[in-house]
Design goal:
alpha+beta, AhpD-like, 10 helices, six-stranded antiparallel β-sheet, 2 domains, Beta-Lactamase, about 270 residues, binds methionine sulfoxide
């Protein structure tokens, strides 16, 4: 388990450092790499298995660990991984064996981790999610797709993020319009600035964390199940308020400073796309 955590946090740190350092060509190459693994004619699962097999033949332990994590996320079974390992071994030969040993160990650790409650702390969970987000935050795609993918990842990975969506500012700069989201359909497709938690965030331009929505008088209810809400503003390159990330939870008081920091990191990373 420690192996996995170490790998995830080191990769995250080094990727950040590399992308800060990188010029256009390196960034383009990174984008190309990410695009290649997006579902196409071949689905995500097959692509990750191909990436894994190639990485084993080329004997890159970091790449192997990464693809094992992605294979796991894509739902690859033990039996399927065993067949991928055997192809890599037959193609690469006995020189693959030391890497195969480490791959087996890493895969088993992933399995143990997924059986238990995956991560003990939010720090670990958010670092893990950042690996998936890193792709979405850097690869080339349209704004709607990017926002939708962020919503998908957040709602899938964080069990107390029960409604995740973006509101975008209308040209009049007085109204928010519902953008991509995951969760129950909401009647609040347009919200005037100042109304509800979302509308108030549009006015203050500050993250609004509401531990218990029943304590708020200026609140627009989306669902009776919603107990708490957090809304984080998004700014463009000129620091103008352009959108917000809205998350509802069915738990009371589920969000803390770590959620706030994590979500602000995501919104900050979106700056260049508006
Ligand atoms: N509760 C929000 C409205 C949006 S829904 O949560 C999706 C608010 O008070 O602004």
């Amino acid at each position: 388990m420690e192996n996995i955590k170490r790998f995830i946090s080191e990769r995250e740190e080094l990727n950040k450092q590399t992308l800060d350092f990188a010029g256009k060509n390196i960034k383009r190459f990174f984008n190309l790499d990410m695009n290649c693994y997006k579902a196409g004619v071949l689905d995500k699962k097959i692509k990750e298995m191909l990436g894994l097999s190639s990485s084993m033949v080329l004997r890159c332990d970091d790449c192997i660990s990464y693809h094992l994590l992605e294979c796991h996320k894509a739902g690859v079974s033990n039996e399927e991984i065993e067949e991928v390992f055997s192809i890599a071994l037959i193609v690469g030969g006995s020189i693959v064996i030391p890497h195969l040993r480490r791959a087996v160990k890493f895969w088993e650790e992933i399995n143990i981790m997924s059986q238990k409650d995956k991560f003990k702390t939010k720090t670990e969970l958010f670092s893990y999610i950042k690996i998936s987000l890193e792709k979405v935050l850097s690869e080339e795609m349209g704004l709607t797709d990017r926002l939708q993918m962020i919503c998908d990842i957040l709602s899938q990975e964080v069990k107390y993020y029960n409604w995740v969506g973006f509101y975008l500012t209308k040209d009049d700069k007085q109204t928010l319009v519902l953008g991509p989201y995951v969760g129950d359909e909401t009647e609040h497709k347009e919200i005037p600035f100042g109304k509800g938690i979302c509308g108030q965030t549009a006015v203050t331009n500050q993250t609004f964390l509401v531990p218990d929505v029943s304590m708020q008088s200026n609140y627009l209810s989306c669902s009776l199940n919603t107990k708490a809400e957090i809304v984080v503003p998004v700014f463009n390159k000129n620091n103008e308020f352009v959108a917000e990330l809205d998350i509802d939870s069915h738990e009371i008081n589920p969000f803390n400073q770590e959620d706030k920091d994590f979500l602000e990191y995501i919104c900050e990373s979106l700056k260049s796309y508006f």
